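Here's what a typical entry looks like (Tetratricopeptide repeat protein):
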Amino acid sequence: MKTNILTAAAVSFLTMTAVAQKDQVKNAEDALEDGNYAEAKAQLKIAEPNLGELNSKWTENFYLYKGKAYMADGTSASGEDLKTAAEAFQKAAEMGSDEANEALASLKNNLIQSAIADQNSQDYAAAADKLYTSYELSKQDTIYLYYAANNMVQAKEYDKAVEYLETLNELDYDGSGKAYTAVNIETGERENLGSQQQMDLMVKTNQYKEPQVEEIPSKKGEIAQLIARIYISQEQYDKAVSAMDKAKATNPDDIGLLQAEANMYYQMGEKDKAREILEEVAAKDPSDPATFNNIGLMYAEINDEEKAIEFYKKALEKDPEFNEARVNMIAAKLSAEKAIIEEMNSLGMSKKDNARYDELDAQRKELYKEVLPDLEKAMEVDPDNMSIIQTAMNLYSNLGNQEKVEELKAKM
């Protein structure tokens, strides 16, 4: 008889617990309707320890209301609260709540917008946390993990950044594709509309114009470069090389990875190795003028001006408007001036020295005449570059062409 009394008491207690929890869940619902998110949170915290006593429908409601309470108005919630809300909506959605599914989609958008706001205010760590939460909610959206890693780099949270970047490598994340963009007529901003179908549809509505399909390059090289850069900054050179080798093992012909590898060795001070890799890149893909320009710069660093000029010319053959290579070529040619001037300054006043001085002066002026067509072209391509104009003025002045000096002075 005693056993029966105890059992009856236990059943009664469990029933009372379930009723109390239902009351707390209902109180949370009422608080949400009043916009009192703090009270809703408080009621749900009381109910949560004994959540197992509720049936599935009440449990589904519990998680739905918890998501709403922590999301609040969608703009004022902290990153941690948004993460809690997302997890709650996820559970409610898994239990069949259509409302939670809709709320989860809205919350994801809020997370992304909040992350963008954090980026704009340079709170990179907060942005990274929100982006990583977005990735956790939808593992197929690896782009959010990529952006989270980049924000961790900006926040100088290098250990976490490497963790995310290494995960991207393990997932064989590429990031390449197509961007379907058009200009929003109202704002004048070019926007990514997601798909060819959506872009065509929005252009037909006359809300958008100038549709464009843009190729998005692979991000593998950038990811490998970021990992290597972090390890190099920590003087963990073996790890930098290992990370690069691992990335190349699955993509040996990826031009972006080869460029990243060259940059890695350059940062490590192994400049000959870096130049060799860049020359391999140029052989595989001779279309990029920047590659030839960078090789030229590396030859200039070891004072091999002849080879440097050779590669600057190759860059300009690929793109005559690539002014960076032209300016570098001008600098390489004018480097010969230093030895001429040093010898001129070392001469005495003898007849022989005077004759040598005149000879050197003539050499210097011939050098200026050789360089001036390049300078004129550089000014044509970049007419607002004051440094180029000033150099041209100096050369014309030394050649005695005061008319050109005055003309360029007027430009300045």
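Residues 66 and 88 are 6 Å apart (CA to CA).

More examples are in the samples folder.
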